[in-house]
Amino acid sequence: MATREKWLPTEVPRRNRPSRLSLAPPQRPEAEKKPPKIVSLIERAEEFRRLLDTGQVKNQAELARTFRLTRARVNQLLQLLDLHPEILAYAKGLPPGTPTKMVSERGLRPLLKLTPGQQLRKAGQVVAGFRR
Question: 0.70 cut: is pTM over it?
């Protein structure tokens, strides 16, 4: 037991070292900033609607097979197009670098249960930065 105590340090080293931890998120150059995910989801929903309207695909099930998605997911994306046009235009116009959580698909889904007028009134509370 005496041999074990010899190799143990008697005091804790006390050297101040500068921290490399940065609390601020890394800043990306303007060229690297991506648009928020909701923009690409709305664009994909518009593409799905165009494919259905032109007859290039028969139905949502064929869309799901083509894009390797579930039928439920295709339906969720197409339902985004039921939002009021002002809300859709706002979401599609978000600039690159906008935080994804600011306007999300999950945040917009409750609006789909409302009438267009109610959507506009409620959007100010649900969609960050939206103003009529």
Answer: yes
